[in-house]
Amino acid sequence: xxxxxxxxxxxxxxxxxxxxxxxxxxxxxxxxxxxxxxxxxxxxxxxxxxxxxxxxxxxxxxxxxxxxxxxxxxxxxxxxxxxxxxxxxxxxxxxxxxxxxxxxxxxxxxxxxxxxxxxxxx
Length: 122
Fold this sequence. Notes:
Blueprint: E1 9-10, E2 14-15, H1 19-22, E3 37-41, H2 53-61, E4 66-67, H3 68-75, H4 79-91, E5 95-100, H5 109-121
C-alpha cells in the first residue's frame, strides 16, 4: 500500500466507513426487530431532508414486505446495523412493521409414520 494513502483507505474496497458511523455511534436497537419481523416501506414525503444512503437503500428494499433477515442479507450489512437503521426509519414513520412470519405448521405425525414405513419397505 502506498505510504501517502491514509490508513482508512483500502485499495480494493475504497474508503472505509466504520459501521458506527452509519448508525450515529449507536450499537443497540430498541428490540422491536427480530429476524422474522416483516417490514414494509411507507411512501417518502415530498419534503424533508434526504435519507442517508444506507437508510435509503433499506427503504427501497422494503418496497415489498420483507423480513429483517432478508433486508440484512440483501443490503450486505450486519444485522445489528440494520436493526438500528430500521429503528430510525420506524421513528420517522417511513416504514411499517407487520407481524412476524409464522413458521409452517408441523406435519401430521401419521403422514410422517407412513413415509418412514414406505422408505423402510424399499
